[in-house]
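hiii so um. not sure if this is the right channel but i have a protein structure encoded as tokens and i wanna go backwards to a sequence. like what aa goes where. can anyone help
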């Protein structure tokens, strides 16, 4: 959903406390604010949640940090990297696959 530059309009609605809590929980499960959740639902957009993607992204970031450390040590001459191009190429493919997965579910 494209972000508008300024939110200037206010909508007030009445509901039971139970309904409010259910909506808040659904928004929390979708990793969204209540406002964003209600706007997305109201506009008929589909909300897709992929369980386990956070763990994959965490691991990908960790591998990226390790690759940066190895690159720094190699540039300092403290480490000789054999087949470093293969390592960087494999990491780039992994990043692209995660990007494709993210696009497919959003």
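sure thing!! here u go:
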């Amino acid at each position: 959903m494209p972000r508008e530059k300024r939110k200037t309009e206010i909508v007030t609605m009445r509901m039971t406390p139970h309904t409010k809590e259910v909506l808040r929980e659904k928004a929390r499960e979708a990793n969204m604010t209540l406002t964003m959740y209600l706007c997305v639902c109201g506009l008929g957009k589909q909300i897709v949640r992929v369980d386990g993607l956070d763990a994959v992204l965490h691991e990908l970031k960790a591998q990226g940090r390790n690759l940066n450390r190895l690159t720094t040590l190699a540039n300092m001459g403290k480490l000789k990297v054999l087949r470093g191009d293969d390592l960087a190429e494999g990491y780039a493919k992994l990043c692209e696959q995660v990007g494709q997965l993210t696009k497919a579910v959003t």
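oh and The two ends are 10 Å apart (CA to CA).
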